[in-house]
Amino acid sequence: MDHHAERGDLxxxxxxxxxxxxxxxxxxxxxxxxxxxxxxxxxxxxxxxxTELEGSRVETSDVVSKLRDQWLQIINDLTxxxxxxxxxxxxxxxxxxxxxxxxxxxxMAGKSTLMEILIRGRGDSIGRGGQRTTRDVRVYHWRxxxxxxxxGIGDSEGTEDQERxxxxxxxxxxxxxxxxxxxxxxxxxxxxxxxRSFGKPIVGILNVKRGFQDQDDIADFLRAPEKIIDRDRxxxxxxxxxxxxxxxxxxxxxxxxYNHLHARFLAGRTGDRQQCxxxxxxxxxVRVEERILDQIRRRA
Length: 300
Hints:
Elements: H1 3-55, H2 61-93, E1 99-105, H3 111-118, E2 138-142, E3 145-149, H4 159-171, E4 174-180, H5 186-196, E5 202-207, H6 215-223, H7 225-228, H8 231-246, E6 256-259, H9 261-267, H10 273-283, H11 286-299
Parallel strand pairs: 1-3, 1-4, 4-5, 5-6
Antiparallel strand pairs: 2-3
């Protein structure tokens, strides 16, 4: 799949996903409207019953009082549920025309590189990871794709920042969770366990952080990419990461794809079409693209 075909496939999938989301929104709207009518009818029935109870000559007034309080509480609970449903629907409506991806990972794991790949950027944000602040949640848009990059795992200076990051995951259609090919950290697994509890689709990305100093390094990589993206070594690292994760949330492991994100970024920046195709293939980022496209199409 060449660069132009990739853009076309993604744009088409995003358009289809938006249409599907709007159809789902209409079904949800009809369901909530029907539920609202049922809640209103139940509330009116209970209010009528309360009025009759209060007008009756019952000796045990304390029983009547308790029944009235219980029924009023039911009415209040139903009304609150109705308001929550409408608020959730209104919040979802604002995101119908975009597919939302949130990026999680440690500082310098490659999240900025990944974001630049997704939004077809020039690399302006790469290398700024060490300068993050607790309030630095970055959002970028590209042709119906919304990419949110939250502060690096373990860099938070307070619960407010952590909750802001997790809120972005709750609202996302898809979470991309990035780890690197150095030793995985327990705090990464702890964060994944919390994100996984939201029930959102998650794609794990193991980023091989082998840098390129010059064209000779790139040529060496392209001659034998399997030496850098060593699947046996990376599989052992993923197993180690899963062992950490199981201590927080056993089972339900997510699948990780092995990538060289910097190679994929360079593929979009080189003017050499042959090298572009070679870097794209060697980076193995197509596996991530396939999973993103799959989730977008599921939305349709």
